[in-house]
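pls design
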C-alpha cells in the first residue's frame, strides 16, 4: 500500500470512551486539593477540549445534528467528568466566588447534557423507537449524571432543559435500582425549594448553605463531606490528608464510584422503594414549583392566583442515597 493510501483511523465510539477514561487519574489527583484553582481548572479544561476533539464528528458537543441513542454513552461519560471537576469547588473550604463559579459551570454542563438528549429525538425514527434505544442504553452512570444535572437545572429555574432530562429518568424508571435513589433525592430537593419559596428566600444559591448541601448530593458521602462530619473529620480532615497517599487513593475511588455509581446499588429497603412516590411525583412537584415561581415573577398582575406551596415533609435524608 502506497503512503498516499494511508489514512488515519476515524475516531470511534469505543476510542472516545477510552479517551474519557484516561482523564480519571489526573482528575482524581486534582481532587486531592481542598479547592481547584482557576489556573488548574483551565488547564484541565484544555485536556477536556483535547479529549473532545478525539470524538467522532457526530458526537461533538458543538454539533447540532441528530444522535443515535446507542452512541451517547461516551458523551455522558465526558459530561460526568466535567461535572465532577466543577462541583468539587462547592465545598465551604472554597470562597463564595469560587462556589458561585462552580455552580455556574455545573449548570452549563447540565444544559449541554440536555442538548445531547434532545438531539436523540432528532433521529429519523419514531419517538417510541428512540425511547426504547435510550432506555436500553442507560447505565448507572446515566442515572446519576441525569440526577446531578437536574439538581442544577431546577435550582436555576431552567425548566425546559430540566424536563428533557426528567423525561429520560422517568423512562428508565426502576430498571436501574440507583435511579430510584436519584428520584428520592430529587423529591426531597423539591421540598427544600418549596420551603424557600414559602419563606420568600432571596439568598443566592451559592450562599444558601442548606441548599448547597442538597445540591452537592453524593459529595456528602465521602471523607470530604462538610455535613456529616465535624472538625475532626470533614473539611479539616481533608486539609490534614491532602498530601497523603491514602487521600489520593480515596480520591481516585471517589471519582470511579461517581463515574459508575456502583456504591448505591441495593441500598434501599423494599419499603423505601415503594414509599417514595415514583417519578410522577417529581414531575408534579416540578410543574407546581414552576407555576409558583411564575406567579412570584408576575405577582403584580391582578388576575394572578396564589397557590399555597406544598407542605409535604419526608423522613428521607441524603444518607439514603449514599
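designed seq:
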Amino acid at each position: 500500500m502506497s503512503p498516499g493510501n494511508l489514512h488515519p483511523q476515524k475516531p470511534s465510539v469505543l476510542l472516545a470512551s477510552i479517551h474519557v477514561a484516561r482523564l480519571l487519574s489526573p482528575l482524581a489527583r486534582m481532587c486531592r486539593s481542598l479547592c481547584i484553582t482557576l489556573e488548574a481548572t483551565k488547564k484541565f479544561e484544555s485536556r477536556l477540549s483535547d479529549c473532545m476533539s478525539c470524538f467522532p464528528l457526530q458526537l461533538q458537543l458543538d454539533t447540532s445534528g441528530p444522535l443515535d441513542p446507542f452512541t451517547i454513552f461516551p458523551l455522558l461519560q465526558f459530561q460526568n467528568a466535567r461535572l465532577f471537576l466543577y462541583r468539587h469547588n462547592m465545598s465551604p473550604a472554597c470562597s463564595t466566588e469560587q462556589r458561585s463559579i462552580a455552580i455556574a459551570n455545573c449548570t452549563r454542563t447540565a444544559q449541554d447534557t440536555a442538548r445531547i438528549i434532545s438531539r436523540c429525538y432528532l433521529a429519523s425514527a419514531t419517538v417510541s423507537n428512540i425511547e426504547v434505544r435510550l432506555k436500553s442504553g442507560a447505565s448507572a452512570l446515566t442515572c446519576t449524571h441525569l440526577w446531578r444535572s437536574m439538581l442544577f437545572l431546577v435550582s436555576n429555574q431552567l425548566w425546559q432543559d430540566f424536563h428533557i432530562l426528567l423525561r429520560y429518568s422517568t423512562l428508565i424508571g426502576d430498571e436501574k435500582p440507583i435511579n430510584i435513589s436519584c428520584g428520592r433525592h430529587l423529591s426531597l430537593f423539591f421540598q427544600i425549594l418549596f420551603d424557600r419559596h414559602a419563606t420568600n428566600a432571596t439568598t443566592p444559591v451559592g450562599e444558601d448553605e442548606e441548599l448547597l448541601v442538597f445540591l452537592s448530593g453524593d459529595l456528602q458521602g465521602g471523607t470530604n463531606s462538610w455535613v456529616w462530619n465535624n472538625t475532626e473529620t470533614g473539611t479539616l480532615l481533608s486539609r490534614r490528608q491532602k498530601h497523603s497517599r491514602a487521600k489520593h487513593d480515596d480520591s481516585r475511588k471517589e471519582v470511579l464510584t461517581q463515574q459508575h455509581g456502583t456504591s448505591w446499588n441495593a441500598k434501599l429497603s423494599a419499603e423505601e422503594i415503594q414509599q417514595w412516590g415514583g417519578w410522577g411525583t417529581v414531575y408534579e412537584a416540578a410543574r407546581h414549583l414552576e407555576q409558583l415561581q411564575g406567579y412570584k415573577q408576575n405577582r403584580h398582575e391582578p388576575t394572578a392566583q396564589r397557590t399555597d406551596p406544598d407542605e409535604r415533609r419526608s423522613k428521607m435524608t441524603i444518607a439514603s442515597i449514599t
